[in-house]
Amino acid sequence: MSKKKVFRFPGKEIDVFWDQRLCIHIGECVQAKGDLFVLGRDPWCQPDVTSMESVRQVVDRCPSGALTCGGESGATETPDDENTVSVTCNGPLAVRGDLRIEGSPDDMPGVGFRAALCRCGKSANKPFCDNSHKSAGFEDYGAVGETGDESHDGGGKLTVTAFPDGPLQFSGNLTMLSGTGRKAWQGNKAFLCRCGHSKNKPFCDGSHKGAGFKS
Ligand code: FES
Fold first, then answer.
1. Average of per-residue pLDDT values in the chain
2. Cis peptide leading into residue 79 (ω within 30°)
3. Are 105 and 115 in contact (CB under 8 A)?
4. Of the candidates 17, 25, 21, 167, which has an alpha carbon nearest to the alpha carbon of residue 104?
5. Is residue 124 over pLDDT 70?
6. Residue where one domain finishes, among candidates 70, 93, 118
7. Tell me, what CATH number does 62's domain have?
8. What's the CA-to-centroid distance between 47 and ligand 1, angstroms?
9. Which of 2, 8, 46, 48 is the most buried (most CB within 10 A)?
10. pTM of the model
């Protein structure tokens, strides 16, 4: 019998879904003020203890896409107006916006809005982060040395393609934020390192070949 992957927490107005394949335990949900998520409570997520708007706001904080909301009420999520990639310090690429992660399963709707993508090369759940960067001792503060061509005309779909044994290609309007939150790069095409070996992170410089990176 296959292990349950997605857990549903029903509410009168809106349901919350938690996908354990994607959760990297950043804690935005349990640290949020209010009682939507309470560790140790059964069930730990109770949508009816707060307003629908509050449910949406808390779910929207989840950087990995593990949390989504919606359900039979017809309530749905809407993507950010602007597509962004945050190059997190010693961690994954935190992507937000109107996303299409090529190859992601149909039953993983959260990654249509938010995703944490591996950039250390060690995740066992590629292209998604599984926190392997910690045990791997991955270090990169998230500096971004380029500015892009600034060809950027708003939102629209951002497609992410993971090249076999190579980088992540981002196609679509995109703003990149450095590890300190600086708005660093704008454009509509980027190839970002996911092997952990580039000398020009977060961009791919071809080092994946010499490093023998296997995705
Ligand atoms: S994917 Fe890391 S250098 Fe190309």
1. 94
2. no
3. no
4. 21
5. yes
6. 70
7. 3.30.70
8. 41
9. 46
10. 0.95
Q: Which domain holds residue 63?
A: 6-70
Three-state DSSP state, 135: helix
How many Å lie between the centroid of ligand 1 and the Cα of residue 140? Answer: 14
Which residues approach ligand 1 with their CB closer than 6 A? 166-167, 193-195, 197-198, 204-208
What pLDDT, on a 0 to 100 scale, did the predictor assign at position 149? 87
Ligand 1 site-directed mutation target among 160, 208, 209, most atoms within 8 Å of CB: 208
**Residue 50 domain flag:** yes
Q: For atom 4 of ligand 1, which residue has the closest CA?
A: 204
The answer as to whether 183 is a domain residue is: yes
What domain count does the chain have?
2
The DSSP code for 30 is: H
> Dihedral (C-alpha) 51, 113, 96, 28: value to the nearest 10 degrees?
40
Contact 114, 62 (CB under 8 A): yes
- How many angstroms separate the alpha carbon of residue 92 from the centre of ligand 1? 14
CA pair distance 168, 66, nearest whole angstrom: 20
The rounded Å distance from CA 178 to ligand 1 centre is 18
Residue 75 located in a structural domain: no
